Amino acid sequence: MGKSAGKTQLEPGLLCRNEDPVAFRELLTKVGDKWSIFTMLALSMLPGERARFSELNRSIPTISQRMLALTLRNLERDGLVIREVFAEVPPRVEYELTPMGQSLLPALQGLVDWVAGNSADVKLARAAFDTR
């Protein structure tokens, strides 16, 4: 297939305004994942903005323990969450947002607010589309 006449093809880096579009897309996919969003928002809303695994698991409806563990590990790897292990018997582990993780909260809350404010319109648009 050849290029269509008159169509401009964007360089991948221009779309995301980043010199490494693959890394950009990977990070955007991770922080935009529903479980990452719910986990970070839950951490920000829990008392002291810290939580044990079981507290987080209870506060995020329908997340499995395996998915929460994977999500926390990825958020920790990306520097958005810190995991603190206390030398107690039994061991106690708590999770907390890092300053970088906290800096992402306004954007995440903005996305959640947009979904809440537009979900009825999206539902109507889907119904109209599906009837065509």
From TrEMBL:
Keyword Transcription regulation carried by entry: yes
Q: Does the keyword ATP-binding apply?
A: no
Q: Which UniProt keywords apply?
A: DNA-binding, Transcription, Transcription regulation
The residues covered by the HTH hxlR-type domain are 16-123
Any one GO molecular function term: DNA binding
Q: Name one Pfam family in it.
A: HxlR
InterPro entries attached to this UniProt entry: HTH_HxlR, WH-like_DNA-bd_sf, WH_DNA-bd_sf
Q: Which PROSITE patterns match?
A: HTH_HXLR
Query: What superkingdom does the record give?
Result: Bacteria
* Gene3D superfamilies with a match to the protein in the record: Winged helix-like DNA-binding domain superfamily/Winged helix DNA-binding domain (1.10.10.10)
What name has this protein been given in UniProt?
HxlR family transcriptional regulator
Species, as recorded: Hoeflea marina
